[in-house]
Structures are given as structure tokens and as C-alpha cells.
Amino acid sequence: MKFMGNGVFVSVIILVFFQLNGNVKCQTTTAVNVGALFTFDSVIGRVAKVAIEAAVADVNADPSILKRTKLNFIMQDTNCSVFLGSMAAFQLLERDVVAVIGPQSSSVAHMISFIANGLQVPLISFAATDATLSALQFPFFLRTTLSDSHQMAAMADVIDYYNWHEVVAVFVDDDHGRNGISLLDSQLAKRTSKLSHKLALPHGANASVISDLLDKSREIGVRVYVVHVNPDSGLEVFSIAKQLQMMTSDYVWLATDWLSTNLDSSPTVDPNLLQTLQGVVGLRQHTPESSMKKAFYTRWRGLQKNGRVFSSLNAYGLYAYDTVWTVARGIDEFLKEHGNLTFSFSKRLPNMNDSTVQLEKLKIFDGGRILVNKLLETNFTGLTGQVGFDSNRNLVNSSYDVINIDQVSIHRIGYWSRNSGLSVVPPEKLTREQQIKSRVDQKLNNATWPGGKTEKPRGWVIASNEKPLRVGVPNRVSFPDFVTEDQDTHEVKGYCIDVFNAALNLIAYEVPYKFQVFGDGRLNPDYDELVKMVSDDVIDAAIGDITIVTNRTRFADFTQPYAANGLVIVVPIKNMKSSAWVYLKPFTAEMWCVTAGFFLLIGVVIWILEHRINDDFRGSPRRQVFDAFDSSAIFISGLAFQLYLRQTVREIINLYHLFNKEDTVSTLGRMVMMVWLFLLMVITSSYTASLTSILTVQQLSSPITGIDSLITSNQPIGLPGGSFVHKYLTDSLNIYEGRLVSLEDTDDYARALQRGPDDGGVAAIVDELPYIEEFLSQHTDFGIAGHMFTKSGWGFAFKKGSPLAVDMSTAILRLSENGDLQKINEKWFCRTGCLLRKGRRSEPNQLHLVSFWGLFLLCAIFTITCLLIFLFRMVRQYVQYKRKRRQLLAISSSDQTPHSTSGLSRVVYNFFDFIDEKEEAIKKMFKPSINPHPPTNDEIR
Asked: What is the DSSP string of 795-862?
């Protein structure tokens, strides 16, 4: 400890450890001396002094405890000083005290615990919360208040409940402050959070020092502050924060139990002070409601009215009261078993002739260890609830109220206990099952935050106008469409920049930023170094075409990938050999199916149009079916003719007559045939051109056909400069580094591949798929060998733990879902590369249906129109035919009585019979006759 440097105290501590037998002095059992050490003039001390005096009076007045033995309390003021507190401890120990209540300060408790160890006097503190005092190093120290180990667990649960991941701690640089914040750091680490910064205040720091520390902390960006100071001076932190405009809605202020202690101790709280504390969330030591507690509060108010106390009662006053009763019960049990209290002189201490300290009066309490054990066995109900100790010498009842200051008053928004965590139900009212459920389902009531807002603050600010986000971007030389700096305007632009800006626009808060270009503009920058700059705090983020690989994730947090990625191999290509089914490749499957469908459609329509007037389309059903499909065989004949003879339309028609004996005689049939011939000429011409291109298309000419042949080959490999590809090929694929050739731009790619390995070039190039697609859209002499052999993506890099990385990932997902990401991609790359990307699975030079759907649509409309005209004529002729038949029926003999049983099905049947008749037969029916044969009833129907 720092305060152990004083030579006098070191000597004292060393010597008091020697427990030598000397003269024995017995303290009479009619009065037992008990000491008390605390700071009288302090927030806690002013309340504790009155509470201790009240407890002593109650103990001495209670005949059921200590019987005729009275407690004689001796109080000493430590003045909140380690030095003065140590001197006060020696003065107490000279008075043969069997126990010391206190001290109030954890720093003083550390020093006096060494003295208590040496003289074997139990030290029972009602206010020293430092968890390290519970160590085995101090066997004579007991704590009758809650340990900071529990308080920091409660604070960490509150922080985790609101999902804050970074915290700034404000604390006094002493044992109590340092050890408490260290515990908080450990508890946050268990909940995936951390202390990003610590503001250590010197003891007794003035306003200027506090202001400077708080002002500098604003540059960090974290806006969640945990204040762990002492009750007497802590309010100044909030007053200065108010002056620095740090009590606004962007900030979160959390306080340990010192704040509730200060506020509870004030008889009247200044409304202006509570206005300053608006939105602060803090902890208060929880004490269950009971009739005993209510009675003591009533008694305390009476003391206030009588002018005996000027402070209100706080939790430490209740613990001080129960501490006196704990000591009294322990002494009572000791006296029942062991009788008198004895002390032994040390022969060594008086021999310190060189010391100016009077040590000859110091005595060792012989029953100290026994009394400690009796105290640890304490079990009773006091003002603070059940009083007892666990195996770590901490109170068994460890719980806190979670308070929130709002509307110039203090509100309780929940509870915390080590068994149930956060809950809106008091811990003492929770059953075992409810405690387990509460630990899983943490709850707090709604809180109000600084600025009066009820919405939970983010707890961090990534940047401000005064200090914008420093965003590093690579200044690419090759593939500038992805990201680069314009050399004339110095504007940073590209596909990646547009994605970044679009994602940033979807975030609910403003993020000022400025770009910092990385690279000299002559060579592609090293992307590993760019990401490393983020972790070194040179920049706050790195955006661009940055591939997410394992070694980079050690330095930064990456967003959700916004572009799929992977490595591919590019090699030269040559003419492709033909195959037995190459004639099918010019058309896609959809094109073949639609063309065949039209082949059937035209055949059926022509048969319908020719059947009534053309003898070539009549006969047996088998022949008519054959004639119907044979009528459209012009497709096959014309196709063959165009492929091999390349003749005119007239010659196509002649070829049709060569293959087909039938001829079209109707006007509508000839019109349909002419439209079909026109469509056929376009399709066959396109088919011929596509087949010619396919027969001369190129294929890979390199012996490297994939990743396996790349590894086994000993030929040089080209790769982009500044990329992770070099490290991947050497470390992951174990390719000899001497084979790798760094290339800077697309021209270098093309030249190196064209020259080949025998002429100082390379056999293949390995690069990421987006770059290669862009390269191949401009250079058709090369192709991709094999398949993509890695899968990764591009993302934006942020500092470790940066919440902006999470929000940007969410924004990128939204861009992908609403289609904006695809629109940005098309904006930059569909000028030349979209067809390549969309049709990667199609054969080269294939003809798609989308290129001909207009012609097919016109042909279908014209054909169906002709068919409808024909049907309209037939219906009109059928009506005339029926009318003529009825007239003939009227002229027939009167003995024939018509009895029609016509129906819809009969009409339809007669209509189709009418259509099936030859046109000449129908016309004969309309000619006048001398002796007309009267129609039958069926004819009438």
C-alpha cells in the first residue's frame, strides 16, 4: 500500500505481529470497552454517531443481553485520514477495547486491519465496502454492510440490461475507488462489455481538475458514465458535468450507493440539485420494510425535532445500529462460555527505545479469535433485515434498490439481489422459483434519462462536427470503379463509397465523417496495413473493397458483407471444338419450346383456314392431321435452306412447295403463311449467325484448369498488388513465393497473360471475382478456369467493439432487402458487365427468347386475328344458312309438322357439321331450285 511507506508505521505493524506472552490484565465483566472509529463530520459519520449512541443505549437498557454488563463505547474521529485514523486506532487500543466498530473509510480500514491482526482485536466496519478487505489477509476484519463485489455486480447488470457495451468510470484514486472499479471491469467483462476509459480523481480534487478530466473524456465518444466516489464530494462531479453540457439526452449517468446516501441524509433536498441530477440512475442499499425499521424512523424524526440530530437517516445509519447489536451479541456469547476478558502485554514493544510512539500500553486481546468466531455465528433480525455472514464474511442479505431521479424526486424503478438479479419485486418477496425466473427475465420499470427523455440513450456518440469520424479509403490504381480518388477534384468516389453513404443514410442518427485517402496513387495500397490503422487509432474506420479474412478480424470489427466474393483463376482461351449436339446451342431451351409451339399453332390455324376450300386438306382424319402439321414444315425446310443456301424469301417458298404437295388457296391462309415466313427468316438468320459464332468460339488454352493444377504447376502466377491474395497463396496453399508476380492494373493483367510464362509473362492470374468480372467485360481473350475456390465478402472495418459496426450491418441488410444494393451495383457495372453477370450460366452467344418475343407476339396476334375473322364469317354464313332452310321449310307440304327439340349442344354440333362441309356444297344450298327438297326436322334444328 502507498500509505505504508512511513517508517514508524512499518515498524509498528511488524512488531505488533509478534504475539509474545507477558503480563496478563483482566477486564471486569461489569463494563466492556468497545471502540468506534469513523469521521464524525461526514455524511455517513453524522448519521452513524447518533445511530451508534442509540444502539448502545438500547443494548444497555435491554436486560436480556449482557445482563449486568454494560457496553462502554469509546469513539475516535479519523478525520478521513489514514495517518490520523491510525493514531486514533492506537489511542483506542490503549483503552483495552475488545472490538472496534469501523472504520468508515476503506483506506483507513486497510491500515487498521494490520494493527487489528497484530493485537487480535476484531474490527467490524459498517461502511468500508472495499471487497479486498474480505481476503484471508485480514482474519480479524468483518463487514456489516454490503461489499462492493455485490454492488459492482448490480451495476454491471444494470448496464447489461440497457445493452450498453462501453463505460467510462469516474472514481477517486484510493483503495476504495480503484478496487471498486476493478471489480466493475471484471463484472462487465463477463457480460461482453468493458470499461473503455477510467477517470481517476485525486483525493480532494478541485473543480478545475474534475472539469479537465470530464472535458477530455468527451473525445472518447462513450456516453455512459459510472461515478464511484464518496458521498461528501461526489455531487461536484455532476455540477461540473452540467456546466460542460454533459447532462443532456446523449449522456447516461450511473452512480453507486454514495449518491443515495448523500440524498437520503439531507433533511431537505435542494430542488435545483435534483434538477441537476435529472435522469441519473443509482443504487441504494436495500433494507426490507418492517415494524422495527418504521419505529426507528419515527424515533429518528423525534431526535430531529429535539435538535439532537440534523441529518436524515440513511442506510449506513441502519447498518451502524445493527453493528452495535452484532458486537453486543458476540460479546454476550463469549462471556457465557469464557467468563472474563483478558489481555496480554508484549515484551517486545516497550523495547523500541528509538521510537517516539508510546507502545508499552498496547495489549493483545487473548480472546480475539474466539470473539471473531462468535461474531461470524451471528443470526438475528435487525433494522436492515436478517443479520448474518456467509463463508466469505459478507452479509447473507445482499440486495440493492435501483433508483432514478426524475421530476425533482427520487423514484425506485426496481431491485437487485445476487440471487434474482434485476426485478420489480422486492427480493424478500420472491420465492425460489421466482428468483430463478427473475434471473433469466431481468426487469426494471421505465426510467427517465438526462434531458427528460424516456427513450433509452444510445450511450455513445461515434463522431461530432468538431471531431468527425476518420474514414480511411484505399486509393486504387486498378479497377477504379470500386473506389478511388479523382486526381483532379480529389473527390473520393466509387461503388463502395455509394454503398457506404446509402447505409449511413439508413442509420437513425447523424455521423459526421471525413475521408482520409490511403495510397500514393501509383500502386494499389496494402489493405492489411489499412485495417491495422483502425486498431492503431490512426483512423476510426476503413471502407472500400476490403475482403473479410481471418487475420484482419483480429484488428477490427467488420460489418455484414455487402458484396459476395471469392478467388478465381483467369487464363487465356482458344477456339472451342465442336460436338455432335452443337446445333442445339444457338437457342436456349425456352427459345426452342416457343418456336415448336408456334410450329404447331401455325399448322392448326392453316388447316382451319384451308379445310373448307382446299381439297388437299380433306380426307381421312389421319391424313388431315398429317396435312395440318405438314403445312408448317416450311420451318424445317426454310431453316435448312437458310443454313446451307442462304437464299431469298421466294426461294424459301419454292422450297416449301418442294417439301409440301399442299398449297394454300385462301386469302387468310396465305396472309398467315407470309407472316410466319417473315418470322422464320429472322429466326433462321439469327440461328445461322449464332451457330457460326459458337463453332468458332474460344476455350481455355492453358494447362491450368483449376486450383489443383494451379498448385501442382511450377509456372508463374500473377496476382494484384496490395491484396491478401499473396498471403493466402503462400500460407494456405503453400505455393512457392518465387512463382508469384505482382501486377498493378488491368493492362498488366492482359500483357502478362498474352506473353505467357515462356516470354516473361504468367500462366494464370488469381484475383477476386468482382475484379475479374470487370476485367473480362473489357478483355474477351481470357476466361475463368475452374470454379471459385474461396468464399468471402467485402465489408467495412471499424474499431473493436464499435457499435457503429452493428448499426451499419443492419443498414446493409436493409439495402439488400429493399433492392437498393442491386441498384448501386447496376449503376456502376451494368454499363458493360451486367449481361456477363446475369448470364454466367448460359452458353456464350446463345439466343434468348427475350430477343424475339416482340416478333412472336406480332405473329401470334396476326394469326389469331385471321382465325377470328374466319370464325366470324363462318358464324354469319351459318346464320344465313339456317334462315334459308327455314324459308324452304315454309314452302314444303303442310302435313309435315315441325317439332323442334333444339338445344345448345345440338346447335354447336350442327355448327361444326356446317363448318366441315365444303364451301362449294354450302354455296349450292343458297342457289334457287325448281323442286326443292323439303328439309327434314334435323336440318331445321
From this structure: --EE-TT-HHHHHHHHHHHHHHHHTHHHHHHHHHHTTTSHHHHHTTTSPTTPBPGGGTHHHHHHHHHH
